[in-house]
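Record type: monomer structure entry
Structure origin: computed from sequence
Chain ID: A
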Amino acid sequence: MNTHLETALDLAARGIPVLPLRAGKLPFGNCDACRDNACGGRPNMKVSGPCNCRRPCHGWAAATTDPRILTGRQWATVWEQARAVAYHPGGVGLAVVDLDHADAVAWARRTLPATRVVPTTRGEHWLYQGAMPSANGVRDDVDIKSTMSYARWLGPGTGAMTALPEAVRALIVQEPSPVGPARDAVRVAVPAGGGECRHRMPAYLERGIAMAEQRITEAAGGVHATVYRTFLAVLSAHGRCGCLTDTHIARLFTAAQTKGETARHCNDAWTNARTALGM
C-alpha cells in the first residue's frame, strides 16, 4: 500500500480529516464538474467535509475520515501521484500557527504561550487546541491554518498542546487600512436625527474613558484584541451622540501605544470598530 495512503488511513481512524497533496504542497485538481471553479464553488463553504459533487474536491473540503473514500476508485490514481498528506485542522478543533522562517519562530517563542511544536522544512507549526478562522500573512512568514484550510501532516510533534490563547486569536484582527493620518480616524460622525447626547452628565463620559484606559493598561496578553474591543465598547456607548473629541481618543491611543501598539494598529482598530458599528 502507498505510504501516504497508509498515513492518511491511520489519521482518519483517529478522527482527523485528511486529503492528498501533489507536488508543491497543493491539493489535486477539482473533479471535472468543478474544474477551474466552473460550479461557482462549494454551495456551503462554511461547513467542513466533502463537497456534494460526485467525488470529493475543493481543496480543504475534500478532507475526510471515510476510509471508503480514501481507498475508493475515485482516488486510486491520486495516491500514486501524492507527495504528502494534509489535514483540516479546524475539522478536528485545532489551530496551526505556521511559522515559515527562523525569525518567525523566534517571535513566537517571545510572544505566544508554549504548546505542541511540529518542525517543518523552514520553520515550525505550533498547534493549539481550538478552532478559529484561517488567515495568511498575519505577520511576516506567519499564517493561521484552522477552519476552511489545510496543513501538511508532518508528524504529531512534541510538547503538551495548550488551549488556543487570545494572543493567537488577536493575530487575525485585520481591519481596513486607514485613510489619512490618525486624526482622521478619531472623528466620529454625528448620526442622523440630531445626535442628542443621552448621557446628560459629562462625568459619565469621563468615567467611561478612564475605565477604557485602565482596561488597556491592565491587559496581560492579547493587547491588540483588547484595544479593538475597548475601542468598540467606547464607540458603542459614546460614539453616536457626538460627545467624543480628539482629546478623548488621543487618551485611548496613548494608553494603547504605551502597551506597545503602533499608531497604525491603533488607527486600524479604531477604523474597524467604527465599521463594525456602521459609523
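Annotation 1: The chain is about 35% helix and 15% strand.
Annotation 2: The CA atoms of residues 132 and 169 lie 7 Å apart.
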